[in-house]
Amino acid sequence: MHQELVFFNAPRYKLILSFSIGLFLYFFLIAFLPFGVNNYNPNHTYTFEFLYEIGQYIPITILTSLINEFGIKPLFRGRFSYAFIIGWTIWSLLFLGLIMFVTYNYQGDWHDWKLSSVYGFVADVSKVLIFPMVGTFFYFRYKALQEKYDAFLTNIDNSIDDKRMIHFTGQGTNDKISMMVADFIYAKAQDNYIELHYLKNGQNSRFLIRSSLAGLNDSLDYGFLIRCHRSFMVNLYNVSSIKGGRNDLRITMSHADEMIPVSKTYVDDTLEGLKKYKRFQ
After folding, report:
1. Looking at the predicted structure, is the pLDDT value of residue 99 above 90?
2. CATH of domain 150-277
3. pTM of the model
């Protein structure tokens, strides 16, 4: 599942979506009087009886959406993607449209209860309900993308062997260096070179090797070494804190003053790595 789509199955999202749909439909019917709800009377006046009758659509629409969201959607748990969301939205519009068609005919003594009317009615209802659906979705997606992180992190016990050796090799004859996991901090791309930041006898040290960061990343098979930016690779063992949102996430490393940026391209992999190796939720 895409990290930014986790909200799609959250109870809060389902509740707000359902109530938004019900209230939006009600006010739309009141404001524009579509579908002949005023019997096409050009001299229509708003009465309490009329508002009450139209108001019956609110609980019916909300209940239908709640059944759809809490009763049917859980059957597809773990399958959420943008393709699924599009398909689910189409299904939801059809489901709600059919229930509204039944309700509309029930209130009108089944005056339009015929198969030929279903398609047009459902299509018209869908054109209305797509607005609160899309609006609610993009609001929650925006909030998810802007989610802020501000946390100090510690290592999960035994998740990383800090005595394990990491071997770095560049293109030059002398571009070789090995160090323990606990000593390596991060790598930074510098033109055609990579600057390795690490601890030597407890002091910050640097070592240059001739290589691209992409090439170095591909040559290393350590899950705790994560490329978080086109110019940076970090050792999750030495990540001490994170701060910011998904669009401006920054990492603080132990034994380093420089804050490491996390680009949008690598933010999901970085967050997944933190959840795997650090005490981070």
Report:
1. yes
2. 2.40.50.1020
3. 0.56
